[in-house]
Amino acid sequence: MQLLKELTLESLEASQYEHLTLEVSQHVATVTLSRPDKANALNMQLWAEIGQVFEAIDQVADIRVVILAGEGKHFCGGIDLAEFSAIFTAKRDCEGRFRERLRRQILAMQDSFTAIERCRVPVIAAVHGAVIGGAIDMITCCDMRYASCDAKFSIREIDIGMTADVGTLQRLPKIIPDGIMRELAYTGREFGAEEARTMGLVNSIAKDKPALDMLVGELATEIASKAPLAIRGTKEMILFSRDHSVEEGLNYIATWNSAMILSDDIQQAMKSRMTKQTPEFKN
Amino acid sequence: MQLLKELTLESLEASQYEHLTLEVSQHVATVTLSRPDKANALNMQLWAEIGQVFEAIDQVADIRVVILAGEGKHFCGGIDLAEFSAIFTAKRDCEGRFRERLRRQILAMQDSFTAIERCRVPVIAAVHGAVIGGAIDMITCCDMRYASCDAKFSIREIDIGMTADVGTLQRLPKIIPDGIMRELAYTGREFGAEEARTMGLVNSIAKDKPALDMLVGELATEIASKAPLAIRGTKEMILFSRDHSVEEGLNYIATWNSAMILSDDIQQAMKSRMTKQTPEFKN
Amino acid sequence: MQLLKELTLESLEASQYEHLTLEVSQHVATVTLSRPDKANALNMQLWAEIGQVFEAIDQVADIRVVILAGEGKHFCGGIDLAEFSAIFTAKRDCEGRFRERLRRQILAMQDSFTAIERCRVPVIAAVHGAVIGGAIDMITCCDMRYASCDAKFSIREIDIGMTADVGTLQRLPKIIPDGIMRELAYTGREFGAEEARTMGLVNSIAKDKPALDMLVGELATEIASKAPLAIRGTKEMILFSRDHSVEEGLNYIATWNSAMILSDDIQQAMKSRMTKQTPEFKN
Amino acid sequence: MQLLKELTLESLEASQYEHLTLEVSQHVATVTLSRPDKANALNMQLWAEIGQVFEAIDQVADIRVVILAGEGKHFCGGIDLAEFSAIFTAKRDCEGRFRERLRRQILAMQDSFTAIERCRVPVIAAVHGAVIGGAIDMITCCDMRYASCDAKFSIREIDIGMTADVGTLQRLPKIIPDGIMRELAYTGREFGAEEARTMGLVNSIAKDKPALDMLVGELATEIASKAPLAIRGTKEMILFSRDHSVEEGLNYIATWNSAMILSDDIQQAMKSRMTKQTPEFKN
Amino acid sequence: MQLLKELTLESLEASQYEHLTLEVSQHVATVTLSRPDKANALNMQLWAEIGQVFEAIDQVADIRVVILAGEGKHFCGGIDLAEFSAIFTAKRDCEGRFRERLRRQILAMQDSFTAIERCRVPVIAAVHGAVIGGAIDMITCCDMRYASCDAKFSIREIDIGMTADVGTLQRLPKIIPDGIMRELAYTGREFGAEEARTMGLVNSIAKDKPALDMLVGELATEIASKAPLAIRGTKEMILFSRDHSVEEGLNYIATWNSAMILSDDIQQAMKSRMTKQTPEFKN
Amino acid sequence: MQLLKELTLESLEASQYEHLTLEVSQHVATVTLSRPDKANALNMQLWAEIGQVFEAIDQVADIRVVILAGEGKHFCGGIDLAEFSAIFTAKRDCEGRFRERLRRQILAMQDSFTAIERCRVPVIAAVHGAVIGGAIDMITCCDMRYASCDAKFSIREIDIGMTADVGTLQRLPKIIPDGIMRELAYTGREFGAEEARTMGLVNSIAKDKPALDMLVGELATEIASKAPLAIRGTKEMILFSRDHSVEEGLNYIATWNSAMILSDDIQQAMKSRMTKQTPEFKN
């Protein structure tokens, strides 16, 4: 069965990135955006690395949950405008071909972020400081979001004169109330952690970055202690439900569980309940 | 027109169930889970009876609204684990056939709960005490949920090492915010009535079980006093909207109302407005 | 390119309506329901004019945002029952043909409201006093809703014995939580501005009608100052997302932006950021 | 696991029907419409029995393929008009309720036919003589259709002034070319076996009824000799593909086969290839 | 009920078009493209008029079927290239706005053709001579197509270097086999009437234009003699089925017929069967 | 714009494959399955290479069309059973994990074939000799199929006791008539080139392999001479249409062409028409 992409934990840990770091500890991977002097602004290199690291993590059975965080004062200030504006000076041999290439480029950028969503284990965003523009697109691909009090959010794309095109307008309406979504997208206004919590964008708030790291770390540890196969199935089902009818979702999980339900985990979990001991699961 | 399944109120009231009770009064049916010594845990018998009772109610024009409640200290503690674990010891003649049978079994279990959703009149869940695992799957099929202060909820499936497969992962994401949904599904953590209200899982809270019964009883009486045909049409439309685009929904209601709108109810309702009297509707 | 419907600002401003007024100022159009002696009740004339005015606005590139408000003590008391009840006395030559005509009539009524949604710029509803029945259908077509403290809402259709058929049951479930939605639709109970805000129906509340006008006016001015093409693209994407999967939405915006992204606006916006001046955009 | 509906072959064979017969031989069930003096016209009794017999067959693992045929000179002359016209004289207490009941009645009639499609094993229609109106709706639920030379087909509904409502307009466009479909539906014109074959409605033609019975019998025997689990999976996948995108279909079969593929059948089939013997499969 | 657009036969007949003619006789409308010196090439005026005439016909209950034909030696040679190439010289103030306008222009052109499909009665295309490019887009909106022997077809867009954008690539794959569709679209090769019939693009062939007119005239007369309401319902259902699942289609027709089935037509049709007389239907 | 995967023709031609060959000439790439001693049976290596080569071709703008053929006496005899049966002896640590891995493996195998469909230029299958099992799955991903007289086809999966899971059951029903599709899938019977042509699986037939190569070569040359951007757009639209409604397809192409239509190709093509010279297009 060679077609299947699978990676060992060792080779994952050995991989090198320029603008992000990856640490793994006790089944929890922590991906940290690491371009702190630029507020972790998304240049093309970082953009590509995000896709690569999540695609790699997806292939390592040892990882059970991922934390996505940012180094320095801000989570992420959005797209690197210097690079972005290069599309205006790009040579255009033929208008049509230039546009075709532009479309493929946008699809490739989306795809890097979508790797977060496709990653089979839960991804927790831990955000602080600036969470702007492309950073919003990025965290809507995560399963859950937690913030420190100082976090400042903004769907900033409108202020550089563009229609957001890497996920915010597609995913955020499925996360927060429709009316609020539109106000934020049309005005680009900044909002804080408390408002983000009220609207459901973040689940809860910590008083500062260290407290946030602790909160998210504990949550990750908790999730990592659960039966891995059931966690992966749960993520698949929630994603499927978002884009399908209830009836289609029911049929899908019935078919899925006819294959997956009889795992060692379930026996392990049952036994633990009786012996009142913490279950130990395989990856 | 014999193909149509229709039932009289009398035959409905005459039906017997082992683990639930059914009472009808003034167009309001109350279905009560009744296995109090087991916290109303869902064994296969109870599971089957839930499907049967709601399928029967659907066929009785006299019923205008249903209350679903639980007897004893808890609404429902979830699946009966003793029965559930039997699938591990089931004889497996052929792996493929065993899995096919498992899939059909899950579909059958889902179908019992879906009977609540398919029932043409509104179903109100009144929950107290433990509302765990399969109980969550069950109440997401109801139209609305109300709780007493002591209610404790948990998507518990993850703790027995399984991916929930009878509706929670399909219906709950369409009821509560996506980020919260995932946190609850991944951690299985318990949450109380107040948090359930904040996230939109329950509409409001009563101070205790008797107060809850009163609250829900009044609501049921209120709904039962409305034009029955319009109530049934409203449920159909809300369900249809959940799984279709707005454009499809608009076309559907236009076609629907071209048939249903000219009822006696509407004339009755109009007349009542003028005479300031309470309208009396046919079933 | 004559097929394209386009209108000048002048011809728009010259158009006359019987039951509504249209004012344009600084790229902001204000449509005011104007039948104050009848609480702006929706008779067929007003209903038709709503469709006409939004279809016209859609064709005027100069307009960047629309405010929808009501004159007098109430935003809108719903359908004009006198006209509505005429369908009961309508001559019915053939039952089938009468029903076909009824269906086409409902579709036409829906279509007038849908013109608000189809209008390519954001539409802000500013509501006060009574917001009843058909008025709810109407404001769910708007992008965002704001209210004064005195606003009173009700999905009243159930009380005239009918299943709402001009949009509430299709659009409201995509705006507010499902459980609340059903309670309101089944009971028709009145709710105030604060509750409307909590459930996400309105974004924020002003203390009275003048404060509401100011709040909404400032918001409109803000949106009108943004890059128009990006605003129009944002509305298109949010609407598309509501009725499609995330994957379909991502592909759509990639294709869209391969055409639209290289606008003068984006260059204008970038330049403004550097010069710290307010950008001036073309229509 | 009592929820699952399963039936023994014995109890199936013991069931009695008024207007159809059921024979089982070597895993092949033959359902024969048996109201020959009325050209097997569909009265409500027969209509209901079709649903019942296919629902029962679906629950008997022993049956691997079904033949649907007609006794006497014709396969089926369509709906029994005497019964059908009763809906015109039905008492109508309230227009709205009457229409609601009518809708539920049509859904029930459709459901009887859909039982053929839902039956997990292939159903082969063997048609001769008249195949008119409701008979077309019925055979479009079958997997494949075969005819004798004398077969005469007609989508007759238009000639009794009605829009066909039990399946033809939904399923036939997915079987024959669109342009031909519309011509036949608008004109109700009769067409013969050869034209039916050319358009893809029937797969092949036999010279007379006995030859047809032989042709279809051999085909049934052939299918019954294949691995039953794989045949059932194949039917499920083809049905799913009809109503879903290719991408959804691929994901579904991958999930399905992760459960079903490792059956005894596949080992049996592999072994047979090597030993050049006919494989013997479990039900 | 003023919102509903309805037109009298008289006002329809009084309308004037520059490049097409409209004749009505015995419930049959014949729309003839009439720019014979240009092979009925589609300039913007003709394009707009096609939309107008079919939108008008849709509103006249007297019309029961439409024939679409071409005057002179050819049915239609496709888009008028002189006008089309104007888009290259169009002034482009802002790239983004120019593209937005282009998109709206294409949508408007599509919409004119879609009026044929939306027209509630069947539309029969009678084609002869050249049927090229845009003409193919146009006839795929018709219900059925008939040709004379001399007809020559070509999906010509590829030869002017463009991706066809007014319907061929969306509708033709739902009419002819997929493999053939792609060959024709990629090569733009010409094909004759006989091949068109074999692939299902046209239903049958007449030896020359007069024979075609007779064939199509008789078919139109036949359809016009059927129950009009049932014909209109049939078209609606076939269109709905094309874009929905079988299950959705079944639910739709059940709801539809609960409104429409009890027409005078059905009683008329039944009576005619007994008296063996030709039924006379209301419009 | 580094995220975009693009490849030069040189690096494509330099790539090496074990079981297939790749030749490029005049914008036409020919991929030849090359394991002739095994009838080009699909082992995992070949399977993987098919995905790789089509993914690579997709990134080379120079390639305008692809031919997929087989070396030796047969196009492809299907899956390599020796490798396939290894899944039965695979070590299974945990039943659930084994099934999860199996599912991912099937998805990976599907994905290799889907690379043919995702490749942005047309892919022409030229088949001869045996075209069995997995080979059918593979050619249904191609745009068009052509065969020599000696070709023998069979959906063979049923004969190894499995439900086909790499594309046939998802794509073939969208290519050939539904009734025939099912017969072939249930019986696994062999059929020849002529029958394949009649049912629409292949577009036309050549008398032998050399004639087939000539036929397909000429077709490829013809397509390669067309405007490349328009060809790529056409493929995208046909694929989109297969899985979406007509209305969605129309909106998509309008958006697409607002970006792509103004290419050099269209100007080149127009000029060529006037000068009657063969146009020369950029890649």
From TrEMBL, chains A, B, C, D, E, F:
Alphabetized, the UniProt keywords read: Fatty acid metabolism, Isomerase, Lipid metabolism
Hey, which pathway is this one from?
Answer: Lipid metabolism; fatty acid beta-oxidation
Q: Which Pfam families match?
A: ECH_1
Tell me the superkingdom of the source: Bacteria
Q: SUPFAM superfamilies per the record?
A: ClpP/crotonase
Q: Which family does it belong to?
A: Belongs to the enoyl-CoA hydratase/isomerase family.
Q: Which NCBIfam families match?
A: PRK06142.1
Quote the protein name from its UniProt record: Crotonase/enoyl-CoA hydratase family protein
UniProt source species: Allohahella marinimesophila
